[in-house]
Amino acid sequence: DTGVSQDPRHKITKRGQNVTFRCDPISEHNRLYWYRQTLGQGPEFLTYFQNEAQLEKSRLLSDRFSAERPKGSFSTLEIQRTEQGDSAMYLCASSPSRLSTDTQYFGPGTRLTVL
Amino acid sequence: AQKVTQAQTEISVVEKEDVTLDCVYETRDTTYYLFWYKQPPSGELVFLIRRNSFDEQNEISGRYSWNFQKSTSSFNFTITASQVVDSAVYFCALSDLKTTGANSKLTFGKGITLSVRP
Questions:
Q1: Using a CB-CB distance cutoff of 8 angstroms, which residues of chain B are in contact with residue A41?
Q2: Could you state, in chain order, the average pLDDT of each consecutive group of 10 residues for chain B (118 residues)?
Q3: B98 vs B35: CA distance, rounded Å
Q4: CA–CA gap between residue B77 and residue B68 (Å, rounded)
């Protein structure tokens, strides 16, 4: 059983550019989460999906951020007009069922550097 | 609001020493889950343990053990006979128990960087 995968692993971009990250959850996991982790901090929740429905967004997710999970499988996170403050590790996690108590399993993350 | 405090920021030990990582949490919920994750230099968060608020039994898994004390809102993690491969950042996290279909986002502490020297 493969784990959560994320692509790319690293992204360097110039301020003002748009970037898109992809997350492939563990097969048949219904829930998918995005977190952001800055240097020296723990991950912070951004948003989550139950199948294809985006059910909650953190106030950290400004209007420059958008996430989709069109067929309830993989998800994309897009950042428009990137800013230097967006530099962080973006982590994706999935959990196996609709139960809120299930463990979240994390991918390796995408490290974004905005120059 | 939920909060997780990991007061220790960095710990350095010599191989084979025992080390305890502290975690204190705050929540108004009566039912919740606590987690520990390990983040090695590669960056991926590795799940270690999940404990619900009704189960205060200590747990041991090999060299790892966890001490959950609801009275002091603490969920501490001990590594016995530490090894160099234990070097990583360790995160404690909290999730409240909600109805099916509702979010169970994790609230993380800031992490503890453990360095185990040979």
A1: 110-111
A2: 94 97 92 92 91 84 92 95 97 75 79 97
A3: 16
A4: 9
Nearest to A104 among B102, B106, B111 (CB): B106
Candidates A9, A91, A102, A106, partner chain B, best to mutate (most B CBs within 10 A)? A106
DSSP labels, A56-114: EE-TTS-TTEEEE-TTSS-EEEEESS--GGG-EEEEEEEESSS-TTSPPEE---EEEEE
Rounded to the nearest 5°, which phi and psi values hold at B68?
-100, 120
Contact A96, A42 (CB under 8 A): no
Q: Say if A111 is an interface residue toward chain B (CB within 8 Å).
A: yes
Residue with tokens 């080390």: B19
pLDDT for A29-41, tens place per residue? 889 999 999 999 9
CB pairs under 8 A between A and B: 69
Residue B63 is classified by DSSP as T
A102/B47 Cβ within 8 A:
no
For residue A56, give how far its alpha carbon lies from the nearest alpha carbon of chain B (Å). Answer: 7
pLDDT at residue A2, rounded to an integer: 80
A99–B37 C-beta distance less than 8 A: no
B71 phi, psi to nearest 5 deg = -65, -30
Residue B108 pairs in a beta bridge with B93
How far apart are alpha carbons A46 and A97 in whole angstroms? 20
